[in-house]
Design a protein that fits this description.
The protein has about 300 residues and is α/β, with parallel strands linked by helices. The protein has helices spanning about 15-25, 60-75, 135-140, 155-165, 185-195, 245-250, 285-309, and strands spanning about 5-10, 30-35, 80, 85-90, 95-100, 105-110, 115, 135, 150, 170-175, 205-210, 215-220, 225-230, 230-235, 240, 270-275.
């Protein structure tokens, strides 16, 4: 397949990537978004986003993403879903992106790959995603005020989620899904203060419900299975940064798997930028959008300067 040429290529179609596309395409640059899955990233999972400016009544994650998409396309951005980037070749004059469907070249690249949540792969998880199953307590916790929730995870992320959710409800079940936990002492002290103890040795093997989460099935170490009624399940078993391809391209990644950028969202490679959750600076849509705007503007300036030369 022939190589397709663009001014700006964006890897990832979440809020940061879509915003970057709006800024680059609005400045008259030929812009493409390459997204391996569906648009929106983790934001699309949010049943309702109430802290995004301009929507006092709130807006669903899907609807907000659709607005971003419509605006980007209005200015001429090309969006390709189902095209994950599996190779990057960065040369002095152009950057080349390889996908399973084709090859694309660009004057500048903006990486907005976000973070992929680890999944349990248990029955009911996918079916009830966004209907009580969530990977983001800060995004969706408010909707479970005073209701029964379970938090699954054995590390800091799970502990942090529990502490946050305890401000909204006192009906919290903690299932580490492991025989031990790895939580800092300060967090353990706080969890003890609010009266939350882990159910060690038990594992969640299924989440069930008709149209929404109604309960979970717990398997004990002895093999017995019991059902527990809940309204929401928050899964906090970590994220999986998409960094292998980036490292091979020479982009610097920190010890936590995040892309290193400066305030201009520039990476260590001229003409390569990054924005959104993959930078580790925030997990809020409004911050990702701000970073996307900065990256889109600076990438556009970079391309325009190269054209003038």
């Amino acid at each position: 397949m022939d190589e397709q040429s663009y001014d700006v290529a964006i890897v990832g179609g979440g809020p940061a990537g879509l915003t970057a596309a709006i800024y680059a395409s609005r400045r008259g640059l030929k812009t493409i978004i390459l997204e391996e899955g569906n648009l929106g990233g983790r934001a699309a999972y949010a049943h309702m986003i109430e802290n995004y400016p301009g929507f006092p009544e709130g807006i669903s994650g899907v609807d907000l993403v659709r607005r971003f998409e419509s605006q980007a396309e209005r200015f001429g951005a090309v969006i390709r879903t189902g095209q994950g980037v599996n190779g990057i070749d960065i040369g002095p004059d152009k950057k080349t992106l390889m996908t399973q469907a084709g090859t694309y070249s660009a004057g500048a690249i903006i990486v907005t790959t976000g973070l992929k949540q680890k999944k349990l792969s248990i029955p009911g998880e996918e079916k009830l995603l966004g209907r009580g199953v969530s990977y983001c307590a800060t995004c969706d916790g408010f909707f479970f005020k005073g209701r029964r929730v379970a938090v699954l995870g054995s590390g800091q992320e799970a502990a942090s989620d529990i502490i946050y959710l305890s401000t909204l409800t006192d009906k919290i079940t903690w299932v580490p899904n492991a025989d031990r936990i790895s939580v800092e002492e300060a967090y353990l002290k706080k969890l003890d203060e609010i009266g939350i103890a882990p159910i060690l040795g038990a594992k969640i093997i299924e989440v069930f419900g008709e149209g929404r989460v109604q309960g979970i099935k717990l398997e004990s170490g002895g093999g017995s299975i019991e059902e527990k009624a809940i309204d929401g399940l928050f899964i906090a078993i970590g994220t999986v940064p998409t960094i292998d391809v980036l490292k091979k391209a020479g982009i610097i990644i920190d010890d936590n798997g995040y892309i290193v950028t400066n305030e201009g969202m520039e990476t260590n490679i001229p003409g390569v930028y990054a924005a959104g959750d993959c930078t580790g600076k925030s997990h809020q849509v409004v911050v990702a959008v701000g970073q996307g705007a900065v990256a889109g503007t600076n990438a556009s300036d970079y391309v325009k300067m190269k054209i003038k030369r």
